[in-house]
Amino acid sequence: MRRRDFVRAAGGATAAGAAVGAGQPAAAAGGEEGGGGGGETVPAFGSFLDDANGYSEDGIVDARGEDAVTVEVGAGGGLAFDPPAIWISPGTTVTWEWTGEGGAHNVVANDGPAGLDSGDPVESGSYEYEFTDDDAGITTYYCSPHQSQGMKGGIAVGDDVETTTIEAGAEVKEPIEFGVDIHEHWVGISVMLMMSVSLVFTFFTLKYGESAHSSGAD
After folding, report:
1. How far is CA 76 from CA 53, 134, 151, in A?
2. From CA 80, how far away is CA 150, in angstroms rounded?
3. Burial label, 90 (beta-carbon count in 10 A; 0-12, 13-18, 19+)
């Protein structure tokens, strides 16, 4: 059988799967096409994952070459898949392991070639799926009881998938810090200007006022 697709109750035999994080973020790994300093290449999961809990493009886990990967179900306070998005090779077995948090969950395909379906929502257990060449591409999925709350995920299979580039070196510009509020700077400048004008006025008044008084006396 090329594909294994089943659910096992918690407490049974240990599921075949690498620990979460066995891979590394695709952006850090650079992908096979990203190289070159112009940005990092990651799978394009599309808008479906935009509001997925815990998801970010630079957090996509590149687990290509791994035989097995584990995804936690009910992570992040109980309403997230962790990692929410992974990039794997055909032949990899992915095991979804329930954490017991967040109530009853399941794994259901949203779009893509892989027929993910763990069945009815349950509070504990595991679901295992072996991805083959038939599953090559991008498959997104969700937990049916909590989809509207952002419990979504995605799996990219193989190297021939649609990708996007994360711009390298892009940094959020922070406002310039002067040490004190800009309003305080203007107050200080105004005070200094007024003091300077006052000193100049006093100087000319004393100098020329005294000269005028002396001339009048003569």
Report:
1. 8, 31, 10
2. 7
3. middle
* Continuous H helices in 85-181: none
For 5-166, the fitting CATH number among 2.60.40.420, 2.30.40.10, 1.10.1760.20, 3.30.930.10 is 2.60.40.420
pTM value is 0.66
What are the tens digits of pLDDT across the range 173-191?
344 343 444 445 555 666 7
Q: How far is CA 68 from CA 86, 89, 98, 131, 177, in A?
A: 12, 10, 16, 10, 48
Copy the structure tokens of residue 183.
Answer: 């309003």
